[in-house]
Write a structure and sequence with these properties.
alpha+beta; 50% strand; 4-stranded antiparallel sheet; 165 residues; 1 helix; 6-stranded antiparallel sheet
Amino acid sequence: MMKKNNGFYLHQQIPRMITNKISLTVIAVMLCLSLKAQNICPVKWDYSVKKINNTEAIVCLHAKIDQGWRIYSQNVGDDGPIKTQFRFKSSDDYELKGGTIEPRPIIKYSEAFGRNVSYFETEVTFLQKVKVKRYGTRVSGYIKYMVENENMSVPPDDVRFSIVL
């Protein structure tokens, strides 16, 4: 005879425990699928190259930002939101000249961070000057940025880019 536990025989509890675990698994899978389906992506990136002369070009990284959203500047400091960062793959065919340049951001006080933060709305173009050693080569890398609106923040995203010089 099986041991009685809390007024029920153990053989009666096992099917109930299995059913509960299956139910929790189904709920967890549905929740993950629901979050994935929402896939909030309020920033669209496009890339271009402007040839300056035979040895120099500018890589343009343009962000189109949905209404009501913002991305942060490269210069927000370490104690605030995640700053926009650019990582270029090294190559023997080109050399980065200086850092990535951004236009003047909007600067406002943020209650959430307790300090002024700098960000962009609507659209922004970041520029990276390169010394070209061989045209026709590919400049690639990734952009890491954080996006938010008045109601929510989307976790930082890494966007890969690749463009031919």
